[in-house]
Amino acid sequence: MLFDPRPKTCKKDLYNFSDELNSxxxxxxxxxTIVTGLRRTGKTSLVLTALEESAxxxxxxxxxEGVSSYRDLYIVISKSFERFVSKxxxxxxxxxxxxxxxxxxxxxxxxxxxxxxxxGRDRVLLTELFEVLDNAAERANTKFVVVFDEVxxxxxAISEILYSSIAHSYDFHRNISFVLTGSEMGLxxxxxxxxxxxxxxxxxxxxxxxxxxxEESRDFLLTGFREVDMHVSxxxxxxxxxxxxxxxxxxxxxxxxxxxxVESLETIKKTAIExxxxxxxxxxxxxxxxxxxxxxxxxxxxxxxxxxxxxxxxKYEGREISDRVLHDILKTLKIHSIIDENNNFLDPIIKDAxxxx
Length: 357
Known about the structure:
Elements: H1 18-27, E1 32-36, H2 43-54, E2 58-62, H3 70-88, H4 92-103, E3 108-111, E4 114-117, H5 126-139, E5 144-149, H6 157-172, E6 176-182, H7 185-193, E7 205-208, H8 214-227, H9 234-244, H10 248-259, H11 265-285, H12 291-300, H13 306-317, H14 323-335, H15 348-355
Helix pairs in contact: 1-2, 4-5, 5-6, 8-9, 8-10, 10-11, 11-15, 12-13, 12-15
């Protein structure tokens, strides 16, 4: 169903992304692929559908909740291994190779289908885990895909440890394909293009998700409503297309609430804004300076030109502010894919959420 808000895993439910899907499946034969795109433009759905269509063994590691310590990372990875077991345990040969390899690694506990990794002093090294997967895939004559979804959510020193481990595997393991996704595109690009990053210099493939244009947005909505035999007026469809600007996640959310009895478009929009406000508050929580909130609200009011924006910020603080301060704030907002190079919000719902802070 097109309006199912959960990530898609079936090609028939992945709207009009066949080119991106085919490219990603082809790139599973490569060592490193990044999948980039704004929030809610279908990255997770694209990756999961590609994995299912390819029928390749994989581990999908969901980092969307954020990771800032060994404990966080190893708990997420152990849960991902357990999901792999429940899904692929019928592949007895591959699974038996992986179990045998894991049992020889310090810091790994296996009890039936339960797997846990120590994050203390005896913690397992990520390079050891990747080596187990590589050896098992080689013996089973297959390629193993390892996905880190929203990889920029790993914060602090642990991020470089992960990138270093992936770089090591890239260099020495021929049977693993890494897929890194990210909606904060500046952070993801810095991981693979920054000379200070361990991944720098490694060749990578890229697949980008995109907004739907107005025609695609209309077709998506009409097709979704036809699936449940529901009619929505053309005027409302036009308004939704204008307000949601082709972001398929918001279009899906609108359709889902609409077919489940939420009639008012304004009510649906308010619900979406509350979700977006939570995301912005989480972003601000990790910013030391309170100026980020002020700058965001000024941008939402339309102060996008440098001189006017700086003047309004100085008026708010009652003192002169250096160009470097404002430059760094705007640069961070761009790196996190909140605004574009012209200081416009990339997501209209995020803009409305900021205005409502």
